[in-house]
Amino acid sequence: MTAPSPAPKLPASLAANPRLSSWVRFTGEGRVAISPGKVEIGQGIVTALAQIAADELDVEISRIEMIRASTATSPNEGVTSGSLSIQQSGRALRHACAEVRERFLAAASERLGVDASLLGVEDGTIMGPGNVRTSYWELADDVSLNHDTAAGASAKTVARRTVAGRSMQRVDIPDKVFARPRFLHDHALPRLVHGRILRPDVSGAKLIALDEATARAAPGLIAVVCDGGFAGVVADSEAAAEAALKALRKGATWSAGEPLPNETDLAGFLRSGPVESTVIDTRAAPASGKAACTLRRQYTRPYIAHASIAPSCAMAQWNGDRVHVWTHSQGVYLLRADLAIVLELPAENIVVEHMEGAGCYGHNAADDVALDAVLLAKAVGGRPVRVQWSRHDEMSHAPFGAAMAIEIEADLDPDNEIISWRHAIWSNGHTARPGRATQPALLAASEIANPYPRMISTNPPTANGGGGDRNSVPLYDFPAWTITSHRLLTMPVRTSALRTLGAQGNVFAIESLLDEIAALRGEDPIAFRLRHLRDERACEVIRAAARRAGWKPAKQSGIGHGVGFARYKNTGAYCAVIAEIEGAEDIRVKRLTLAVDVGEAINPDGVINQIEGGAIQATSWVLKERVRFDRTRITSTSWTDYPILTFTEVPAVDVEIIQRPEIEPVGAGEAAHGPVTAAIANAVHDCLGVRVRDLPITRDRIIAAMELAS
Amino acid sequence: MPAIQFRLNGANLGVDADPDQTLLDILRNRLGVTSPHFGCGAGECGACYVMVDGHAMASCEMPMWSVADRDVVTVEGLGTVEQPHPLQRAFITEQAMQCGYCVSGILISAAALLQRNPSPTEMEVRAALDRNLCRCGSHNRMVRAVLRAASEMAAS
Is the CB of residue A75 less than 8 Å away from at least one CB of chain B? Predict the structure, then answer.
C-alpha cells in the first residue's frame, strides 16, 4: 500500500487570491484579460507574465491584454519588489491559466461530445478529431471562472512550452517609442487641477507658522491647504501651482530641524548610535585550529538616492467619502492600507489604481505623493488633483538606500586559509514601506495636525532575504562564522528599500576580503572561490564568466581585472562578473562580463536587459553616487550635485545566461549590483595595488587609500 | 496675451501664451503633446528634449518668446506606427529601454544627430546622447539602436 500523495501545493499568491476570474477573463472578440497583482516598474514584468499566460492557455500573446493592478479588481499580491514577481505572480498565473484551460476543455468535451483528452487548443480555438471545434470565447458563457481554484490542475511540462523561455518583444515598448501616453505623468483627467507641496529645506524642520496671504492672491489659485505642518497649494495649471508655492514658501516659518550626521565619518555615526543587535547566523567549527593571524577590515557604503528620472507623481479625486487614487506605487493594496489609517476611512472607500511611472528601484516617493494628492484633493470638491514633486524634493525628501558600515574579521591559519569569519553590519533598517504596520509610513502622515511618528526603518526577516543582513551569510564553506546585524534605532536621514537592500554592501565586503586573502595566498581569486563553493550552479556561473572574459587576461599597465560573485539573497539568481577597468586620473570601467543563472529565463532578452541595467546602475553607484549633506540639510538635490553615469562613461556589458528550463525561475533585477560592485573594487586593486573600502570609489578615495597603504 | 507663431511637427501654429511660459508647459498642458517629459526643470536630464531648428534642446527651460518662428519637432512628429522613423523601429528591435521615461528625449537627441551626421561612430552617438540621463542602465541598447537606424537609413 502506498501513502496517498499529498495535494499539490498552490502557489502562495493564488492561495491568497483563489478566485480564477480575478486572474483570467475572456473578453470581447478573441481577447484575454490577464490581471496580475504585480506592476510594471520598468522591469518588463508584464511581458514575462503575458508569456506565461499565453503558454498555458495556448493563445497568441497578441490576444492578451495585461490589466493594470487596482484594488478594485486585482488580486492582492502585496508589493512588486525583491525580484519576486516571476516567482510569485508567474507561478500563480501559470497555475490559474492551466486550470482555466482544463475547465474549458471539460466544457468543450461536453459540447462537442469528444473526450477531453482528444482535444487540443490552438490560439484559443479548441479542436478535436473530425474537425470539431469551438473556442474559449464561444464557451465563455458556459464556463464560469467565478470559482476558487482547485489544487488539481497541472501546468505544462517545460518541453511543451512554446512562448515562455523565448525572447519576446516587450508589450509596453511600442507605446513608449510612438509617444502614446502610458505614464501616469502623461494622463490627463477631465477637469484636472494641479497641486504642489511645501516642504522644508532644513532636514526635520517643522512648519510652525504660515502666512498664506501672498499665495492666496496668486493667479489661478484654487486652494491653499494647511493641516498642521502639512501645506500645499492647488491651482488651475502647473505653472500657477508652482508660482503659488513660491509665494507660500515666502510666508513659511520653520523650526530649527534635526541635526544630520557628519557625512565624512559615516562609519563613526553608524557605529555609535543606539542599535538593536541580532545574530543572523553562526556556524561552529568542529575543531578550529589556532589563528596565525586575523585580518580586520571595515567597508562602507554611503546613502544612495533612487533618483528616478521622473519626479514622483499621483492623482486623486474625491467623491463624497470615497477617493480614487492613481499611483506608480509598487503596492496598491499596501498604499491603500496606509491611506485608510490616515484618512480614518474603511479601505473599501479607497480605490488605488496603478499607472506606470519612471523606473522604480525601490521605495521612493511614489506612496508619499499619493497621500499628498489625496489631502489636497479634499479641498477642491470632486475635481481630480495631480501632484508632482520637484526634482529638489525627490532628491531630498524621498527615502534613500541606507548607508552601511561592515566589519569583517577573518582568522587565518599559517597557510592563510580561513578558519573563522566574523561579519558585523551597522546600518539603518532597509525598509519602511507602507501598509505593513499599525502606523502609516507616508511622509505627510508625519506632518499633519495629528501627526504619526516618522517610521524608523526595520529589516525584513532573514527568512525573507533579510535587510541590512541580506547576503551577509557567506555562500562559501568557511569552517566557522558569526554574522551580526546592528540596526540603528534613530534615523536622521530617511531610509527605506533600495534595490538589493543590504546585499550590495555585504557582497562588496565579502568579495573584497576574499580577493585580499587569495592574494595573500598567491592563489588565483577564481580558483580560491571555486575551492570554497559546494554549489555547482555557483561554480558554473563563475566558470562561465571567467571563460567569456578570457580569465585572466595578460597584465597590462593601467588596466585591471577583478571578479565578483553572489547568489542574490542566497536563494535567488546566481551572478558572476569580471570587470575590466582603466585606472588613470579617474577609474573608468571598460567592460563587464557577466554570467547569470535565474533557473528558467521566461524572457531571456528581458533577463539580459535587467542584468545589463543592474550592472550599469551598480557601476554608477560605485564610481559616482553618494547622497551629500551638511549638518542641517541634504545638499545633493540636483543632477549636478548628484551625478550619475552618462552615455560616454558606461562600460560595455556582455551577459551570458545559463538557461535551466527545468528549474523554477527567479527574478534578475537585483542579481548584478553586489557582484559588479565587488568586481570593480577588485579590479581597482589589480590595477593600482590599493584596496578602496569606502564607496564610492573616487579619485579622492583612491588617493586616501594610497596614503594609508604607504 | 500675444499669439506666438511657430511650427510644431510640420504644422503652423499660433498659441496665446505668456512669453515667459515654458515650451514644455505649453506642449504638455495646452497642446496635449506629452512625449517631452518633465524630469528636473533645469535642463540637466534631457527628458524634455525637443528638436528646435534641428537641435535637441531642453523645453523645460525654453521660454515661449524664444520659440517664435522656429521649427519644433517632438516624438509625435518623428513617425507613426504605420510609418515609423527608423529610430523608432530600431528602438523596438533592440528593445532599447527599461522604463522608457527618458526615451523620448533620447530619440530627439538621436534624430538631431542623424540629421547632421547620418553615419556616426559609436563614440559620436555616445557623445550626442551624453546630456540625456538614463537611470535604468539601457544606454548600450540605445546606442546600438541609433547605430542600427543610421545604417538602415544609409541603406535606403
Answer: no
